Amino acid sequence: MNGKREYGDYQTPVDFAEKVCLYLKDYHHIKPSAIVEPTCGIGSFLKSSLLFNANEYYGIEINPKYCEICRETISDKKVNIINSDFFAFSSKALIKDKREILVIGNPPWVTNSTLSSLGSDNLPIKRNFKGLKGIDAITGASNFDICEYIILQLINEYRDTNTVISMLCKTSVARNIFKELRRNYINFSSCDILEFDAAKVFGINASACVLLIQLTDEAISSDICCVYDFEKPEILKSQFGYLDGHFYSNLDLDTENFDGRCCFEWRQGIKHDCSKVMELTIRDGTLQNGKQETVHIENDMVFPLVKSSMFKSPVIHSFSKYVIVTQKKTREETKHLERDVPKTWEYLNDNVELFESRKSSIYKGAPIFSMFGVGDYSYSKYKVGVSGFYKQPLFSVLYSDDDRPVMTDDTSYFICFDSYDMAYVAMLLLNSEKVQGFLTSIAFLDAKRPYTKKILERIDFDKIVGSLSLKELMKTEEKLNLSHYVTLPMYDSFKSLLDMGQLRFA
Prior knowledge:
The chain has 506 residues and is α/β, with parallel strands linked by helices. It is 29% helix and 21% strand. The strands form three sheets. A ten-stranded mixed beta sheet has the order 3-2-1-4-5-7-6-8-9-10, with helices on both faces. Helix 14 (420-431) packs across helix 18.
């Protein structure tokens, strides 16, 4: 297929490409000897970069129709248009004058999983290119933007040279690139982000930027990435990067330092990818599924469910949604359900085609009706959970009045407790003004999911209890419109729990 979606095809308007090139020339005084535009499309950056008067120009494009357009509209003899797949091509080998190279462009804004779902061949060789380990390597953490892959390939190809890389991309991609520069010990003297209005330029709703990296042959790197507004590049908006070995989303914020290692194990909720069958709602006293069918099954495997969008109260103990949980732990055999809960087994088999059509690799070779993200921790009586999606995180105590374990979905996270009081204290600590301020310094609020397990794992409760008084917890209760409940003995018991060091739920 050759649709725009397959290629992540957002052609850069020539006037915007010209603004980028003028910025590089006037603000950074770049004088490239050679210019490369990988995935050049109809050649907007190639045309605009002629103002540099470089000795060599190379445009690489997989679409032959776009190559024809480039050849027809760019008459300069120094410009070479190459019809090739970027993933199997080295542009550096073509360049004769390597004194100062400018690699500029707008790579595809699409993920590898999207291309796979479209049946596209326009993909890099499938591999774990970031060297992820364990669960991250087989789940969503290994999904990546093709744009990110291309930029990292370019960085690796041109490393240890005086090359400037200037790429349009999503802001989240730019931040990942900065981290990868550091993680892979790439020599670079600066990394800047210039945010622009993607709705105005491309007509899409996305946080976007011009990523500008100055590679170098000197053994140096920068701890900081500077963020500017493309329309006002002289004004520094913010800075993110590393301080004392820790990564911060905003180095300009003056917040309490609660950075460390969380003594509680943050868990992700259950994943089943079959909501129409597995998620149920009570209507008129009966269970109904997502297909509006009445469901008659045993109660043994039906549990209250708090989805990410439902974290709207600091204490949640009444529910409108329920979920069928088929396993006690991941990849546990499920055939016993036929004997133990025959009605549930029949119901699941009546919808077996939906389970068999699930595309995620985590279900391959797993028992029928398998789920993911289940374990002993899923059945904890008390949890403190949070949605990964909201810019202002609200941590909630989760429990059921009938003592049934409360489940969450896989876009939310939780820690486990044996008593309501300890869960309640943890909830107040996490919702306190100081901790909320700290979280804004380590999370990117414009990300699709600002709060992830990696972010939450940095919350050091030992540092928090050393900083927050009982009075501050009571103030948090007031802010959350809760009746006074926390006491000094409760808080002391929580501190003792931390001292015991027996917190991680198996």
